[in-house]
Design goal:
The complex is a heterodimer. Chain A is 72% helix and 0% strand. By secondary structure, chain A is mainly α. The chains are: A mainly alpha, B mainly alpha. Chains A and B meet through α1, α3, α4, α5 and α6 of A and α1, α3, α4, α5 and α6 of B.
Chain lengths: 286, 312
């Protein structure tokens, strides 16, 4: 085979691979939206009705409890994890720590990022057994927060790194303390940080393995912070393998809601990251 | 007059003191937060080791890893079926995923330009953010019937569609986005002089990519593949939904099986009351952690080598 034939062959293979990947994405998004959308369109009250007592068996009622549970777990988790992640990211900047220390912490952050979510689930469950507590909303919040922490830290670190050094030098020249400079830097990196937090939120709301054992898989509306709760992904997991076609169809509807939420979050995050860039002090795009 | 200056300077020094106090307090707080990453990791490892100690005390490691008897009720914990299942699923999904990801990444980095590139890159990002359960659901709706009704009969095999091959097919798409974005990143980091000089010597574009770029970006691409391996090892929800969940040594890829992570999901809920089972499953978590950690570390070292290599 001469090199021109080889070039043509690999050109075709490359286009085919891209087509397969994009085709898979199209199937995933398309099937979820069409199948789920059809179920939801035929009965829009599904999303705002609490479940019946045996909804996993006969599909009575809707999945309001999972939507509320998702919000109650992921919103506080994102807030808590953002607070710690931002502090970590600020400390990793050269103002505070040496390049060497930052490298070490980054190593651990990468390992945490790569840790399978199921391991976090097992970890928090083990802590619960230690404490003699049972699966609950709070335990779900803790596990999702741990899961999001390395993700948000990495985005925040990148956003802070992209702030121009001139800005920092100017604030130091005016006599700021490191903390005051950090606050200015945070403001400059704000759009990037918000984009990262939204990505963390999207990952958190989509994950089931972390909360499967820790949130408790409740079958009714969440009643309190120390009572079991459930989330949309857990609900989809439980309903998808049902033998009852109606229960399965509810899983499609829940997947529609989850997918729309995730897609909107990604879109917002991308828009934020691109759009606010020009309002950032010290950026060159003015 | 004199007293006024006095209060003013006193006021100023108290402001400074307050600012310095804020500085000191915040520094301490931030340092704690930075140590949180290390502390969290250490805590996870410590807890998992501590909790999996009972099973290791009861049965030798070799028996746990090499026995294929999985019967928690009788106190038999052979992880071999799950280990073999994991190897199958990871192996097949990587065999499909690596070429897909590499070829797509080369197209994205070297052929696509402008709007096409931005659009394709965004699609890859969206794919990376699709929740695992949605992958599982689509696996059930699309891939299971495909394997059960078309692929298996075409090869003369009986299959329900739930099994190792189905899980591998779903997983191969899950791991692609991570490998693509990391590979694109390391290809784009290569200097243009490299491309220009190769082309100036009369190489075809593909020849330049294969002979020069892939080699120069080698460590970066390898680290992308290692990270993909890590993802595949730990993937749980999508796999558990389509693998069938049977803990026996699989005879063929069309049979239902079990991976290490699906073993945890399938057995944890029911057997919480038996302490040994709990310990055994926590040990599985520890194994996952150690394996993924090794892959991550390898990837990191390779990337570091790449960084050194950039200084041509």
């Amino acid at each position: 085979m001469d090199r021109y034939t080889e070039q043509k062959l690999f050109g075709v293979l490359m286009r085919a691979s891209v087509a397969v990947v994009i085709g898979a994405l199209a199937i995933i998004v398309g099937v979820t939206l069409v199948r789920g959308g059809a179920v939801l369109a035929s009965d829009p009250t599904l999303a705002i009705t609490p479940p019946g007592p045996t909804y996993l068996i006969d599909g009575g009622g809707g999945f309001l409890h999972a939507m509320v549970g998702s919000l109650f777990i992921v919103v506080p988790a994102t807030v808590a994890s953002t607070a710690v992640a931002l502090s970590t990211a600020i400390y990793l900047q050269s103002d505070y720590s040496s390049e060497r220390f930052a490298e070490w912490v980054n190593l651990f952050l990468n390992v945490l990022w790569g840790t399978p979510p199921i391991v976090y689930g097992v970890f928090v469950l083990t802590l619960l057994i230690f404490a003699g507590a049972r699966a609950s909303l709070v335990a779900g919040i803790v596990s999702i927060a741990i899961f999001q922490y390395p993700i948000i830290t990495r985005y925040a670190d990148e956003a802070l790194r992209s702030v121009s050094t001139e800005l920092k030098e100017t604030t130091y020249a005016l006599g700021s303390t490191r903390f005051e400079t950090a606050r200015i830097t945070l403001r400059a990196a704000f759009p990037g940080i918000v984009a990262g937090v939204i990505m963390g939120f999207a990952r958190g709301i989509g994950d089931a393995a972390t909360v499967l054992f820790t949130a408790g898989g409740a079958t009714d509306m969440p009643t309190g912070p120390f009572e079991p709760a459930t989330t949309l992904p857990i609900l989809i997991f439980e309903q998808a393998t049902s033998f009852n076609a109606e229960v399965r169809s509810h899983a499609y509807a829940a997947a529609f809601v989850l997918m729309v939420v995730v897609l909107v979050l990604i879109l917002v995050s991308k828009l934020l990251a691109g759009r606010f860039a020009r309002f950032v002090p010290g950026s060159d795009t003015q | 007059m004199a007293s006024e200056t006095g209060t003013e300077s006193a006021g100023r020094s108290s402001t400074v003191r307050r600012r310095l106090l804020a500085e000191r307090l915040s520094s301490a707080g931030l340092a704690l937060a930075a140590l949180f990453a290390i502390g969290l990791f250490a805590l996870v490892v410590a807890i998992l080791v501590w909790e999996s100690a009972p099973i290791l005390a009861e049965q030798p490691l070799s028996e746990l890893l090499l026995s294929s008897n999985w019967n928690p009720a009788q106190g038999e914990f052979g992880f071999l079926p799950a280990i073999v299942g994991t190897l199958y699923v990871t192996g097949i999904s990587m065999a499909i995923g690596i070429p897909l990801a590499l070829l797509s990444a080369i197209y994205l980095a070297e052929y696509a330009d402008g709007r096409t590139q931005t659009l394709l890159a965004s699609f890859i990002d969206v794919l990376a953010a699709v929740p695992g359960v949605v992958f599982g659901l689509i696996g059930l709706i699309v891939v299971v019937p495909f394997v059960g009704d078309y692929l298996a009969p075409a090869l003369g095999v009986q299959s329900t569609g739930l099994g190792i091959l189905t899980a591998s097919l779903v997983l191969s798409i899950i791991v692609v986005p991570y490998m693509v974005s990391l590979t694109v990143e390391s290809l784009e980091a290569l200097p243009d002089e490299l491309r220009e000089s190769a082309l100036a010597l009369g190489m075809t574009k593909w020849g330049m990519i294969r002979g020069v770029l892939l080699r120069a970006a080698g460590p970066g691409i390898l680290s992308a593949i290692l990270l993909g391996f890590g993802r595949a090892f730990g993937a749980t929800m999508a796999v558990v939904m389509v693998i069938g969940g049977m803990t026996a040594l699989p005879d063929s890829v069309f049979e239902p099986g079990q991976t290490l992570s699906t073993l945890i999901v399938n057995d944890f809920g029911e057997l919480m009351s038996v302490p040994t089972t709990q310990s055994a499953l926590i040990f599985v978590g520890l194994m996952l952690l150690v394996i993924v950690w090794t892959f991550n570390l390898g990837a990191m070292l390779l990337r570091r080598r790449l960084e050194r290599r950039w200084q041509y």
